[in-house]
Write a structure and sequence with these properties.
14 helices, single chain, 256 residues, Serine Threonine Protein Phosphatase 5, Tetratricopeptide repeat, mainly alpha
Length: 256
């Protein structure tokens, strides 16, 4: 049984005992949109959680991510900003706001928020990864390299951190380095789970769109949670005119 299936099963069991658990509805809402791609279920669970404990939902980082991928970007930013206002020294809340700004394409403001997150916690790996991605989205690949390398270091070479690094190397024209990272990911996949999305990121950086789309199909088979953000993340912009990418968005049933 997968970890997600196990945790969802326990959450449903908790609700069977007590249907008034806001945190359980929040967890099921997150699973509904990132794994099941069931937007009505996600909305229903969040609405139930809000009715039970509005403050718990508004201060939980799952909710603004749901709002962003549901096409309610400005609302997501507002919710994340208010959560940070309530806990201004929280690196997690700061990162959540930076991520919502990035998903809504407010790149410059998101970059500044990433820097504030890093000031709060110099070891917050996700902030470096997001900062590198934001520079890359602006075509500033040389500036993207140091934070992307730092994210890989802090995560001890996690698959997605390495993939982001491979993407930046590819965009800098350092194709041999990008292919070395692909080889590293392939070797890793023989020993542990390595998401197909990681390979797709490097291939799209190399301009190898057919391979990127094939690996995205693999990620679809894996039901990898980050596919929920396909419509919002700029790294996939080179694929948006391809009918195969449009079909993938349809299969995931992503909101407009």
């Amino acid at each position: 049984m997968s970890l997600r299936a196990s945790s969802s099963g326990m959450t449903y069991a908790a609700l069977a005992i007590d249907g008034n658990l806001a945190q359980a509805h929040i967890s099921l809402a997150y699973a509904s949109f990132t794994y099941d791609w069931d937007w009505p279920a996600a909305t229903r669970h969040f609405d139930q959680a809000i009715a039970l404990d509005r403050e718990a939902v508004m201060h939980h980082f799952f909710y603004p991510f749901y709002l962003s991928v549901a096409g309610r970007s400005e609302e997501a930013v507002s919710v994340a900003r208010k959560a940070l206002d309530g806990d201004p020294v929280s690196a997690s809340a700061s990162h959540t706001l930076a991520a919502q700004l990035a998903l809504s394409r407010h790149d410059d403001e998101a970059i500044e928020q990433c820097r504030r997150t890093i000031e709060l916690d110099p070891n917050y790996a996700a902030a470096y990864a997001l900062l590198g991605g934001l520079f890359a989205a602006k075509g500033m690949y040389q500036e993207a390299l140091p934070p992307t390398q730092q994210a890989a270091t802090l995560t001890r070479g996690s698959a997605l951190a390495l993939a982001n690094l491979g993407y930046v190397h590819a965009r800098l024209g350092q194709r041999e380095e990008a292919r070395r990272i692909l080889q590293q990911l392939a070797a890793s996949s023989k020993e542990r789970y390595t998401p197909g999305l990681a390979f797709a990121i490097v291939h799209v950086g190399l301009g190898e769109n057919d391979q990127a789309l094939s690996w995205l199909d693999k990620a679809y088979e894996e039901r990898f949670n980050r596919l929920a953000y396909l419509r919002r993340e700029p790294v996939w912009d080179p694929l948006r005119s391809d009918p195969r990418f449009t079909d993938l968005l349809r299969r995931i049933n992503l909101p407009q």
